[in-house]
Amino acid sequence: MSEQKDIDWYNLAGLGIIGGLACIYVAYILDAVLGVTYFAFLGALGAILATVWGADAVRRICKFGIGTGVPSIGMLAFGMGLLSTLLGLKVGDYLFAHGLSTAVSNIVIAQLIGPVVALIVSLIMGAIVGYIAQNVIKMKIPTMQVGMTMIAGAACMIYLGYIMAITGGAFDYTNVILKVMNTGFIAPLFIVGALPMLHAFNACMGPDEFQKRTLTLAIEASSMSVVIFGILSFASSKIIPPVAAAAQGVASTPPVGINVALLGVTTGNLSSQAMITSVLTVVFGLIVWAYAYLAYWRKVKESGVTIMATGLIPKKEE
Amino acid sequence: MEPLTLLIIVACIGLGGLLVGLGVHFVPVGGAPAAMAQATGIGTGTTMLAASSGFLGLISAGLVTAEITNGKISYPGFTNAVDSQTLLSISGITSNIGAIAIIIAAGVIGAMLMISILCVVPNVLYIFGLGVPLASAKVKFDPLTGDRQDIYVTRGTEGHGTPSVAVISSLIGGLLAGIGGALTYLALLAGGFSIATAAFAAIGIFFVNSVLASYNIAGTIEGFHDPKFKRWPRAFVGCLIASVVLGIWAAAIMFLGA
Amino acid sequence: MEDLALNLGTLALMGACATIAGAAEDLESDFGSQSNANSQVQLAPQVGYLHRIYNKAICGEPVAYGLLAATGSAIALALATAFSLNIVISLALGATIAALMYGVYATTAYMGRITGQKRFGQPVYLDVLLITTPSIIAHAFIATISIATFSYLLSAIIGQPFPFPILALLWGVMTGGMGSAVGDVHYGAERQYQAKPFGMGLPIASSGKIIQKGEVGLRCSTDIAGFCVKHGGPLTGLGLGLTVFIDLWRHIIFINVANGWGAMIMGLFIVVLIVAFNRGIEIWARKNYGPYKKAED
């Protein structure tokens, strides 16, 4: 069977970075200019592209055998990525509050700087940890340095994309702390965001592993994550800071099972705009998932593995 | 915020991460072979075993912090210090040392409890469900109890179960991981992060150090009596650098006005 | 006094939920042959032993249960907040969606691993896929709803300040760790290698030579879970239930003694008791089982 040439990993890095940032910016700009929140699902598309990038980087590192299993690298990447992403978004917020507060037809320029700073800080952190893993701990994996940098960057883009999906289109620091951290939604974001990146290689691992099949699985798994985050986004429009209610005379109830010092919840039904935004994200996720799952199944059949409906163990031809 | 307070916070985060990385080396991990009674130790991966014990420490530390805040136990001045972000200034530390001590103690006790149950319940299964005695194949005599080990090891295996020396080693590992987790959480809380942000950032830092330490161990380790334990200086340097850099990012967020 | 009664009652419910969660977790990992023992299931075709066991390689158990618990409880929180649904119904819906997502991961993992090793001749059995996956989803649901429930109780009634999806993530990782440490040993050493005599460890030379034949016909994952439910599953549940119960019991009862230090001292005392118990059973085993060979000196 002819070996098809793998897609070069710098090309995939370009897809992840440029594609991811482009999706996030387009979503933000369209939302701001039109004054709606419907385009949050484009942020999720950016996260799917970043997952493909990350899955390939994981593949390049783990093909050499890292000895502890594939999932730990994802935990490392997302652990690093969290503080790096928060720092980047905080810089964006700081610039808005202390100087660069120009807004062009509702687009706040300082907001657009946040994701780029987050990405740069993540890449730096990934490079430092890659250096530690390769030279201090002496893991002897040639692709470790570049691979770790890429995984950290991919983790940052995945965080940003899914944050847009959960908050319904916002990625400024205050909204992230209120709607993603204080609600506890960061917990599924961390693990459901990391898992598609790992699952792709971990599930396809073996001597007959094939890049196109692995990356198709990455798309399938991350689209399931989009569905989950779409469901989480239903709650976002009802969440307010804990002191805002009393100050503005907005009716609010204590949140279910969350410490009252962390956030408040408005009473009343969801606005139709919030409902449509969340439904769009969920439906987008389901459509991509159905398509990707069938594509994966087709690739499994094409690979030539024996598929039996039922039966005993086949006799090996000697 | 005062520069000295920020420096202390970075130092605490660096120290916390470092202790986690070191603690991982003390926990006896047999990995997949241990689940087949082929190796001494607990049958979970290195990363996640230390994570399990550190997390119970984090939960206990968080619970004790809440009890201080709502006044069930009395450490006056703690809540004000946290709200005004002066908890880790020099004066803040000296006046709130009792509160800081009990929060870290809660982390330690939680972690030690989890790791001891994780050692002992599998031993019950090994002894009564599999019918094997607990033995290590790396030493001839148990360094703490003096029991003979080699004749109790099945031929062809590297030991099975978690003998007493490994259990004590795991308690030391739990102690270090518990201090590390609670200290990181406290440092982030003192810098003005909300409770949830401080908790999850602490979890993230915990994972980074736990994974780096497990890369250093590269598979299985039986505890401080295992020859692989001598590799700890590499993890010391690695985890210290990684945690200090993460601490600098956290301090930058606090400086910009968390 | 009322406060104490409420807390202790909640604690009893939490302990029961944790026990169920631990047992369900271990059984689910036996249905799917996850993590530790899975290394043998993957090795077997490479040494010529083809089989009909489900090969679910998503990630280790701690990460998998962190995934399930965090997702289930976050969806529960979102539904309860957005639609003002009753929390019990939200928890059930959240656990269902999380378990379904997990089931899809399981199917792609089964197909993917076997395809990645197709040169060894192990086939993809569609009936194994279709019969075992619902059992996996069902047990994952039980474990998820139990973990999410006791995390919710920990946050809402006992008063732990972290948001309960974060608590659920932490407890999910701990549940997976417990299952991996306790239950997998029963599956990996006793059931998977049932031909090995009772009372010995598994020699390295026997790795990969798993039992292919079952009581009637070929062994499949359902047979494995049916065996492990008798010892490994309940013991895992006991381990997790003990952890949840002891840690919070010593906190609730003794937190007011010596301005909080009473709980710490009680915790230390319990750790010492556990280590002493371990020493006791270690000596019992050495005395009653005896060495494998005589000491030469």
Q: What portion of residues of chain C is helical?
A: over 70%
List how many beta strands of chain A DSSP finds. 6
Strand and helix order of chain A? HHHEEHHHHHEHEEHE
Largest interface pair: B-C, 84 and 85 residues
Unreliable runs of chain C, pLDDT <50, ≥5 residues?
none
Looking at how many chains there are and whether they match, the oligomeric state comes to heterotrimer
> Which descriptor suits the 3D outline of chain C?
flat
Q: What's the average pLDDT of chain A?
A: 86
Kindly give the count of domains of chain C: 2
Give the N-terminus to C-terminus distance of chain C in angstroms. Answer: 64 Å
Return Rg of chain A in Å: 21 Å
Radius of gyration of chain C: 22 Å
* Beta fraction of chain C: under 5%
Q: Estimate what percentage of residues of chain A fall within beta strands.
A: under 5%
End-to-end separation of chain A in angstroms reads 22 Å
**How can the largest sheet of chain C be summarized?**
none
Give the fraction of residues assigned to helices of chain A: 55-70%
Overall 3D form of chain A: globular
Write the layout of secondary structure elements.
The complex is a heterotrimer of chains A (318), B (258) and C (297).
Chain A: H1 9-34, H2 40-62, H3 71-98, E1 103-104, E2 107-108, H4 109-136, H5 144-167, H6 173-181, H7 186-204, H8 211-233, E3 239-240, H9 244-248, E4 252-253, E5 264-266, H10 272-302, E6 307-308
Antiparallel strand pairs in A: 1-2, 3-5, 4-5
Chain B: H1 3-26, H2 31-35, H3 46-69, H4 78-83, H5 90-95, H6 97-130, E1 135-136, E2 159-160, H7 164-190, H8 195-217, H9 232-255
Chain C: H1 2-32, H2 35-46, H3 61-83, H4 87-116, E1 124-125, H5 126-158, H6 164-181, H7 183-191, H8 221-228, H9 232-254, H10 261-289
Task: Describe this entry's structure for a reader.
The complex is a heterotrimer of chains A (318), B (258) and C (297). Chain A is mainly alpha-helical. Chain A has one domain (9-234, 270-302). Chain A has helices at residues 9-34, 40-62, 71-98, 109-136, 144-167, 173-181, 186-204, 211-233, 244-248, 272-302; strands spanning 103-104, 107-108, 239-240, 252-253, 264-266, 307-308. A 3-stranded antiparallel β-sheet of chain A has the order 3-5-4, with no helix packed on it. Chain A has a two-stranded antiparallel sheet with strand order 1-2. The longest helix of chain A has 31 residues, at 272-302. The two termini of chain A are 22 Å apart. Chain B is mainly alpha-helical and 258 residues long. Chain B has one domain (3-255). Chain B is built from 9 helices and 2 strands, in the order H-H-H-H-H-H-E-E-H-H-H. In chain B, strands 1-2 form a two-stranded antiparallel ribbon. The longest helix of chain B has 34 residues, at 97-130. Chain B starts with a helix and ends with a helix. The relative contact order of chain B is 0.23. With 297 residues, chain C is mainly α. Chain C has helices at 2-32, 35-46, 61-83, 87-116, 126-158, 164-181, 183-191, 221-228, 232-254, 261-289; one strand at 124-125. The longest helix of chain C has 33 residues, at 126-158. The model of chain C has no long low-confidence stretch (mean pLDDT 90). Chains in contact: A-B, A-C, B-C. The interface between B and C is large, with 84 and 85 residues.
